[in-house]
């Protein structure tokens, strides 16, 4: 555990020293404020998005609109920026042979790196969630919001539901993080690791839009990004959340397991 | 009897249809400097990578102080420091941060040795500079510092003087000699036969994935042909004729003078004979040392 913790700590340090991670976190922090400023500058609202019509009436609609957009491609992209390059960067810099000839085994190196990528994904999601909520509350207001059943939800309940909704996307976020890690190990290319999850996310969104069978849609990790909708009904339904969490856990286990197996058995030649 | 720093037997490694290493045995004794020499593509780097556990052999076994990678995992490298190919680091971190990272991966007291290792490698002044701004030679020095952090009893160095200027090469050679004097075993891959001659006690020459020589430097010298010298004279035709009269001297005409093969004492006799015959010697330079001659003789044609 000490070895894994050491690797984890240094990977976090390395992440904070890289411009791409700083840019992503800054975008997560400032993006929602720019988004609300742009919305406030126009009378149109994103009506085709759930809660989009309320963005001028309640600040709590803002984080939900952002969550709707983010689930389509932004969250896979945000997580992949670090996870997709976590292992490929060692190939690019040729540093595998530097770190694998020290006193830590491949299991510890893998675990430390995977945990660091996970920590970044969770941190970026949390920053985006809190920034969206803050942007909505500060720039629009704390007005009550109409729920999916047509009843008015008080501000306190709205805030709790917004946070719960954002928390509900953590399982698919982690599934996409694991996909990024797998592509990073298998492809040994940051471009594949970073771009792959984004493309996969978009393709799967497309599959769910073209009337795919229910079973197929249920088994897509992207479906879990919309599972929070049920929280806003008068009688909340949690089935999609449970299914989404299970499906995400499955993707996470398969992708992380495959990535670990590949790293364990690969020869370090050149990198 | 203590376990040898390196005991490798029957190492085989194939990459697809190509056989990079085809059954090599290698033993490095305590306090010995062992040269691993061979032309490009001979299998040296793959051999070193197998020794350091970066590449798994298809057959054969590696023991480092009696430990194996399969049974002992990362602990197999306890007491082992070094690098394969050019040392590589994170370019966006400083030299000191790179070493601190590696020291933490090593654990123990390595973190406390970072400053001393940087000073020893001559990088004290550049420790706070990002590695992305380092020259090839500075990275090479940082690689040595990273190896020394582990307080090694075995150093595995892949062409450690590559990219260094003459003073850097001199420093590294002195450092290797000093460490060997303190009992550290060194396995050193090199292209430079002069370096091997300066530093090594034992030599393994590989070609085409096989060991074509394995023995002491003295053994290799014993098998070496006479060294070759470039000779320019006032009258090359007369010098060529005179060479035929001096036993142990073979000369041939070239565009820029003569190529003379002779042991040093026979060469001395030849040069004296040239002087006595009134043939002026304008230039005399070593073309190929005895060891280099042995290297070429052993490796040429071995790839086939």
UniProtKB/TrEMBL annotation, chain A:
Keywords, ordered alphabetically: Membrane, Transmembrane, Transmembrane helix
Keyword RNA-binding: no
Segments crossing the lipid bilayer: 21-41, 61-89, 110-140, 160-186, 198-220, 240-263
Protein name: ABC transporter permease subunit
Biological source species: Actinomadura rayongensis
TrEMBL record, chain B:
Database matches in InterPro entries: AAA+_ATPase, ABC_transporter-like_ATP-bd, ABC_transporter-like_CS, P-loop_NTPase
Family: Belongs to the ABC transporter superfamily.
PANTHER family (alphabetical): ABC TRANSPORTER, ATP-BINDING PROTEIN (PTHR43335:SF4)
Statement: the UniProt record of this protein carries the keyword Membrane: no
MF (Gene Ontology): ATP binding; ATP hydrolysis activity
Residues covered by the ABC transporter domain: 6-233
Gene3D superfamilies, A to Z: P-loop containing nucleotide triphosphate hydrolases
Coiled-coil regions, chain positions: none
Keywords (A to Z) from UniProt: ATP-binding, Nucleotide-binding, Transport
Keyword set includes DNA repair: no
Name recorded for this polypeptide: ATP-binding cassette domain-containing protein
């Amino acid at each position: 555990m000490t070895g894994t913790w050491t690797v984890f700590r240094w990977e976090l340090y390395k992440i904070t020293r890289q411009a791409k991670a700083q840019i992503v976190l800054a975008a997560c922090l400032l993006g929602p404020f720019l988004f609300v400023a742009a919305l406030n500058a126009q009378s149109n609202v994103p009506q085709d998005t759930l809660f989009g019509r309320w963005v001028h009436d309640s600040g709590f609609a803002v984080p939900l609109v952002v969550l709707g957009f983010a689930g389509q491609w932004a969250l896979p992209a945000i997580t992949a920026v670090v996870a997709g390059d976590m292992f490929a960067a060692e190939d690019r810099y040729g540093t595998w042979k530097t770190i694998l000839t020290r006193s830590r085994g491949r299991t510890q190196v893998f675990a430390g790196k995977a945990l660091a990528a996970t920590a970044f994904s969770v941190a970026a999601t949390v920053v985006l969630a809190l920034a969206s909520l803050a942007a909505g509350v500060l720039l629009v207001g704390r007005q009550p919001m109409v729920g999916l059943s047509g009843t008015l939800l008080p501000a306190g309940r709205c805030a709790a539901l917004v946070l719960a909704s954002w928390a509900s996307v953590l399982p698919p976020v982690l599934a996409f993080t694991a996909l990024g890690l797998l592509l990073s190990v298998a492809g040994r290319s940051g471009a594949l690791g970073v771009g792959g999850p984004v493309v996969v996310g978009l393709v799967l969104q497309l599959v769910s839009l073209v009337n795919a069978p229910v079973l197929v849609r249920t088994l897509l990790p992207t479906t879990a990004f919309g599972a929070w909708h049920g929280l806003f009904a008068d009688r909340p339904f949690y089935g999609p959340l449970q299914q989404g969490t299970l499906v995400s856990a499955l993707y996470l286990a398969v992708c992380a397991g495959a990535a670990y197996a590949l790293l364990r058995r690969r020869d370090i030649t050149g990198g | 009897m203590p376990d040898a720093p390196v005991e490798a037997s029957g190492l085989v490694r194939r990459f697809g249809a190509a056989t990079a290493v085809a059954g090599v045995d290698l033993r490095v004794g305590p306090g010995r400097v062992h040269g691993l020499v061979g032309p490009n593509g001979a299998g040296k780097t793959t051999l070193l990578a197998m020794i350091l556990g970066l590449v798994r052999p298809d057959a054969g076994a590696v023991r480092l102080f009696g430990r194996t990678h399969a049974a002992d995992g990362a602990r197999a490298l306890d007491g082992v420091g070094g690098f394969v190919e050019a040392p590589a680091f994170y370019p966006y971190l400083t030299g000191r941060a790179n070493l601190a990272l590696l020291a933490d991966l090593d654990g123990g007291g390595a973190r406390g040795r970072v400053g001393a290792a940087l000073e020893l490698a001559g990088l004290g002044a550049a420790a706070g500079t990002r590695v992305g701004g380092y020259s090839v030679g500075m990275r090479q020095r940082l690689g040595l510092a990273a190896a020394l952090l582990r307080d090694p009893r075995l150093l595995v160095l892949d062409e450690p003087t590559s990219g260094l200027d003459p003073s850097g090469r001199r420093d590294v050679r002195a450092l290797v000699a000093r460490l060997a004097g303190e009992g550290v075993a060194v396995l050193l891959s090199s292209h430079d036969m002069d370096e091997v001659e300066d530093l090594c006690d034992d030599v393994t020459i590989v070609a085409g994935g096989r060991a074509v020589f394995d023995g002491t430097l003295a053994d290799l010298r014993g098998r070496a042909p006479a060294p070759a010298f470039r000779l320019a004279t006032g009258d090359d035709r007369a010098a060529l004729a005179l060479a035929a009269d001096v036993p142990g001297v073979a000369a041939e005409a070239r565009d820029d003078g003569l190529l003379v093969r002779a042991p040093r004492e026979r060469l001395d006799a030849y040069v004296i004979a040239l002087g006595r015959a009134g043939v002026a010697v304008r230039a005399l330079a070593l073309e190929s040392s005895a060891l280099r001659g042995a290297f070429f003789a052993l490796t040429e044609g071995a790839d086939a």
